[in-house]
User: Which sequence fits this backbone?
């Protein structure tokens, strides 16, 4: 079973990309529905795909594809399940809705999906039925997956699914994708309609060639009639727990305070609870793993060879140090997934909407930006959901200032090394600074480049609060942890190998290849040429500058390159737990002239603000072109250097 996520350069290319990924000869079933209706959660439940899901609108901005097997073992039937971008209707108001319309109706009939599963939110039935009304105007096989019935029940909304089925003339299946209830009934319904020809457009719907306004009025009248026949509405004036909580969670004063408190708890817990596990992994890699690797190399006659240096001082020291942060990353991902699955992150969008409008961005821009705190690459892709081109460009330029999870490894390492008692507060502070940078840089760009660009109010459906489920939280957390491990196993291994090669090439002295002291290597010479630029910021040591250079590839590589450099320079001390911390303290104390704390804070600010990684640059080039990407690099480096110098110069006067 495989899944694919396409990232076409333009929405018009997406239809062909999605079609190319479908299994040859397998029928295609498309999931459609409004954002936050449970569509992507249903996709994961049906296919076992590990696609990112979240309890706020705007999660899906690309086309997901996976194999879905209908029926029992022995008689199973494979179909290609497509997860289309969320859409409220087939009248596109953004590129993602335009893509959904194109895949469903703006292609020849033979290229349309064989079955469309319309995910209908029972708690917002009228809104969901507008899309169903438009689907019924075309020759499509449609099955209704009725979700969120438990949330509707909490609001005293009871929907008669059998009457709904009779009224629509379409199969209706009640399903709870979060708990995997109703999947078998949905499989049976899809299998049945696959065996029948696509029905003609319903005769009781508006004339497709008639006046658009008249057709819209008829659709709304039809929707209201369906809702009236199938729904028992909630009692007037009934207040739910969601209403009571939102009175505080979205208020102008208490809302931001609750948001900051939630984030502080996340990062404080991350640095304190995960610390013992991180120390245990550090001891494992610097002790038994290093010893075992050395013994193995000796057994095969490679001790003292270049291979020994690559394996022990490169891969074990570099990748091993990075993997010690696995408990930190895992715990943070779990806590953030709990906030997402509970429904709170949608409230965070409301709280931050005021800041977005201050910058001149629509409230919808918050969604790509909040994704950026996980990873900048999908966040940049998510800007396709913004209908205005200037809004998309500005958001793409601001995404790199959101502190992605890769930077967390550097924050935790330096915070626990130099300020262990305040480590959680330091990490939390970096995320606050990240938010401030997004706002301030956005204000500066708007004031200089887009003075006439206006904002627009946030329109977002707030899902009811719900108890997070272990399966969803675990699945989402594992997706993110797997991404971290993939980076460690791919990009970081490549970066470690390149650094080892550069450290093995002598430019001074008489030592041969792989025998040269690090300070006489090509790596050191290159870093030393750049180091004077960072002396005003208090971290002009070549080891630190070299780590920043490697950080252009991926921010996790900053940690691995430090571990690799100091392991090569001082193999005995660095083989002991805490050896890297000792080396870092000495380096920052020397480069700062006895003011290590301001220098460390300046370095953290630079890590936050300068170019995230090459993958982010590639995503920016794909979305906004080379010219804007180069402009963004210049802005990021300028802001990072100026802030770092300011932090150090002011800090050293106060210490």
Assistant:
């Amino acid at each position: 079973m495989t899944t694919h996520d396409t990232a076409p350069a333009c929405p018009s290319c997406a239809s062909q990309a999605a079609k190319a990924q479908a299994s040859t000869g397998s029928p295609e079933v498309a999931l459609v529905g409004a954002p936050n209706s449970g569509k992507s959660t249903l996709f994961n439940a049906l296919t076992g795909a590990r696609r990112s899901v979240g309890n706020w609108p705007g999660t899906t901005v690309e086309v997901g594809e996976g194999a879905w097997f209908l029926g029992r073992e022995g008689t199973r039937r494979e179909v290609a399940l497509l997860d289309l971008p969320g859409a409220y209707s087939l009248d596109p108001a953004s590129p993602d809705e335009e893509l959904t319309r194109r895949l469903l109706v703006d292609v020849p009939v033979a290229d349309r999906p064989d079955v469309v599963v319309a995910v209908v939110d029972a708690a917002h039935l009228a809104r969901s039925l507008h899309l169903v009304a438009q689907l019924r105007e075309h020759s499509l096989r449609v099955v209704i997956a009725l979700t969120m019935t438990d949330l509707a029940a909490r609001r005293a909304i009871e929907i008669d699914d059998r009457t709904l089925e009779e009224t629509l003339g379409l199969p209706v299946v009640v399903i709870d994708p979060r708990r995997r209830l109703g999947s078998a009934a949905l499989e049976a319904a899809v299998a049945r309609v696959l065996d029948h020809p696509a029905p003609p457009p319903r005769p009781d719907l508006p004339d497709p060639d008639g006046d658009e306004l008249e057709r819209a009025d008829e659709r709304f009248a039809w929707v209201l009639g369906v809702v009236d026949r199938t729904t028992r509405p909630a009692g007037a004036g009934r207040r739910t727990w969601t209403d009571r909580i939102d009175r505080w969670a979205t208020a102008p004063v208490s809302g931001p305070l609750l948001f900051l408190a939630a984030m502080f708890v996340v990062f404080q817990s991350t640095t304190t609870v995960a610390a013992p596990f991180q120390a245990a992994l550090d001891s494992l890699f610097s002790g038994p793993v290093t010893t075992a690797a050395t013994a193995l190399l000796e057994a095969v006659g490679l001790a003292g060879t270049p291979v020994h240096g690559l394996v022990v001082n490169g891969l074990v020291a570099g990748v091993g140090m990075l993997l010690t942060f696995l408990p930190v990353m895992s715990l943070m991902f779990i806590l953030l997934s709990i906030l997402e699955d509970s429904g709170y992150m949608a409230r965070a969008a409301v709280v931050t909407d005021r800041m977005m409008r201050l910058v001149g961005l629509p409230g919808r821009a918050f969604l790509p930006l909040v994704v950026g705190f996980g990873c900048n690459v999908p966040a940049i892709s998510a800007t396709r959901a913004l209908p205005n081109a200037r809004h998309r460009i500005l958001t793409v330029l601001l995404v790199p200032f959101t502190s992605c999870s890769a930077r967390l490894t550097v924050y935790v390492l330096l915070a626990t090394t130099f300020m262990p008692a305040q480590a959680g507060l330091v990490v939390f502070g970096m995320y606050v600074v990240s938010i401030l940078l997004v706002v301030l840089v956005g204000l500066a760009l708007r004031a200089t480049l887009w003075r006439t660009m206006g904002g627009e109010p946030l329109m977002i459906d707030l899902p009811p609060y719900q108890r997070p489920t272990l399966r969803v939280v675990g699945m989402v957390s594992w997706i993110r942890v797997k991404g971290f491990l993939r980076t460690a196993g791919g990009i970081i291994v490549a970066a470690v190998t390149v650094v080892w090669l550069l450290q093995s090439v002598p430019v001074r002295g008489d030592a041969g290849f792989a025998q040269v002291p690090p300070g006489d290597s090509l790596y050191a010479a290159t870093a030393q040429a750049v180091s004077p630029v960072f002396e005003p910021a208090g971290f002009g040591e070549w080891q630190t500058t070299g780590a920043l250079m490697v950080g252009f590839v991926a921010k996790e590589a900053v940690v691995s390159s430090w571990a690799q450099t100091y392991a090569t320079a001082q193999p005995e001390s660095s083989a002991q737990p805490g050896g890297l911390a000792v080396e870092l303290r000495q380096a920052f104390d020397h480069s700062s002239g006895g003011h290590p704390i301001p220098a460390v804070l300046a370095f953290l600010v630079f890590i936050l603000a300068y170019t995230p990684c090459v993958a982010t640059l590639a995503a920016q080039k794909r979305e906004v072109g080379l010219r804007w990407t180069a402009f963004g690099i210049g802005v990021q480096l300028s802001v990072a250097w100026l802030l770092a110098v300011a932090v150090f110069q002011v800090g050293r006067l106060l210490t």
